[in-house]
Design a protein that fits this description.
The chain is an alpha/beta fold. Helix content is 25%, strand content 28%. The protein contains six helices and nine strands. The relative contact order is 0.14. The structure holds S-adenosylmethionine.
Length: 207
């Protein structure tokens, strides 16, 4: 899997090392484990997915994680992305809106000794108590850039967020440039994510 990521252009050795270290099969439902190292998103229940490894790698690379970075993840899902961030030395804060997914993810994350704090909530409003963050990664696609997430970034921090329609989203890398919430945006490729449901995402009825 990691060889394939390298062939597809992922060059950050720290990201590749973390993805080599974290065993993806632990985060995949048992009946699907023989596909755990395919470069594919897989169902994890509740209509949600563990993201494709290439997507995880691109998003993690875009965050520019360093040791002790404080990273907020919106959409814990299986816990795989959080485990990769923790393996890179980040302090991970992760929010999932579906309680049963977080319960399973928490057990797996504890079993791999990940350093994380998690809660069930609407992540589009962020986690003010632990802000400001060096980086924020949103692993579901919404209609716009959630304002609270920009507010909760450090100046110079990066928000990686898929934005677009229900059908496809463009990955945006938002860099906060000033204390008054100014930011610049770099557009990456198009992806297909599950919907970001919440106050600054799609309405509940779209879930
Ligand atoms: N990072 C996950 C992983 O490694 O498995 C990917 C999970 S999946 C692609 C996206 C997740 O975002 C889903 O579990 C979904 O329930 C969650 N989600 C959607 N809207 C959310 C919100 N407003 N707050 C928190 N989680 C949300």
């Amino acid at each position: 899997m990691v060889r394939l990521l390298r062939d597809r252009g992922i060059s950050d050795e720290r990201v590749l090392a973390a993805m080599l270290q974290i065993e993806r099969h632990l985060f995949v439902p048992i009946p699907l484990r023989n596909h755990a190292y395919d470069d594919a998103a897989l169902p994890i229940g509740e209509g949600q997915t563990i993201s494709q490894p290439f997507t995880v790698a691109i998003m993690t690379e875009a965050l520019r994680v360093s040791e002790e970075s404080k990273i907020l993840e919106i959409g814990t899902g299986s816990g795989y992305q959080a485990a990769v961030l923790s393996a890179m030395g980040a302090r991970v804060f992760t929010i999932e809106r579906i309680p049963s997914l977080l319960k399973t993810a928490r057990t797996v994350l504890e079993s791999v000794n990940a350093r994380f704090v998690a809660k069930t909530s609407d992540g589009t409003v962020g986690w003010k108590e632990f802000s400001p963050f060096d980086g924020i990664v949103v692993t579901a696609g919404g209609p716009g850039i959630p304002k609270p997430l920009v507010e909760q970034l450090k100046v110079g921090g990066r928000l990686v967020v898929p934005v677009g329609s229900h059908e496809y989203q463009q990955l945006k890398i938002v860099t906060k440039t000033g204390a008054n919430n100014d930011y610049s945006v770099e557009d990456k490729s198009d992806f297909k994510f599950v919907p970001l449901i919440g106050r600054d995402g799609w309405p509940e009825s779209d879930g």
